[in-house]
Amino acid sequence: MTEVALAPLELVLVTIWLMLPAYLANTIASIVGGGPPIDYGRNWNDGQRILGDGKTWNGLIGGTVGGLLVGHLQITAGADFFSDCYCYVSWGSSPYLIFFLLAFGALAGDMAASFIKRRQGQERGSKSPLLDMYDFIIGALVLTGLFGGGWLEYWFFSGWPSHGWVPLITLIIATPILHRSVNILGYKLGVKQVPW
Ligand code: CTP
Ligand code: MG
């Protein structure tokens, strides 16, 4: 594995770049979402919807495929940019596996949050600041951590001594900012019903 020392600011940008399939899977889901809900309208035993109308098959499948496309664009169109990052996945796992885990993980985290919100009796689209902001990032990190063959550890935790806590702190700070900005934009463009 080639080791490259990055300055902290570069590491911040690389972190966001690496997580783009996860961030955008969510955005793409709200653009292509609609149609039959994943829970097919069924209720949990508390009488509330299992997930609610905001979680649809179109969103889940479209967002996952969209995240794969984002990753594909990153390693082709972005070849001269940060794309090398994915080549450091030298433990045999394909970058496409990572893209899938990031995108699907993000949407799974988002579904888990909806499940929790419904159990708390919160209606679809209601505001739940911490959950809404971090659900998809946690989902993406959990899935890449479990199935990514060391990718997550390498980039976010023990990888290089020089990484330190920069990637994790970047995610904690950048995620709410990106999430909020994209949602306000989506609201203004009319693809999202609420600006959160
Ligand atoms: N979306 C979808 N399928 C998904 C995820 C999202 O169709 N798996 C679409 C829905 O149209 C949803 C929009 O993206 O309304 C925004 O997503 P989100 O904010 O996560 O859903 P909410 O409508 O706020 O519902 P919840 O309260 O369950 O989070
Ligand atoms: Mg929401």
**Major sheet:** none
Portion of residues in beta strands equals under 5%
Number of domains: 1
Measured as a percent range, the helix fraction is 55-70%
In round numbers, the mean pLDDT is 87
> Overall 3D geometry?
globular
Q: How many helices does DSSP assign? A: 7
Please provide the count of β strands.
Answer: 0
> Which ranges are low-confidence, i.e. pLDDT below 50, for 5 or more consecutive residues?
none
Please compute the radius of gyration using only Cα atoms.
17 Å
Bound small molecules, by name, code or SMILES, are: cytidine-5'-triphosphate, magnesium ion
From N to C, what is the helix and strand string?
A: HHHHHHH
Measure the end-to-end span. Answer: 40 Å
Structural category is mainly alpha
Write the layout of secondary structure elements.
Blueprint: H1 8-32, H2 57-76, H3 84-87, H4 95-119, H5 129-147, H6 151-156, H7 166-189
Helix pairs in contact: 1-2, 1-4, 1-7, 2-4, 4-5
The site of cytidine-5'-triphosphate has 18 residues, from helix 1, helix 2 and helix 4.
Descriptive account of the structure:
By secondary structure, the chain is mainly alpha-helical. The chain has one domain. It contains 7 helices and no strands. The chain has helices spanning 8-32, 57-76, 84-87, 95-119, 129-147, 151-156, 166-189. The relative contact order is 0.16. The structure holds cytidine-5'-triphosphate and magnesium ion.
How would you briefly describe this protein structure?
With 196 residues, the protein is mostly helical.
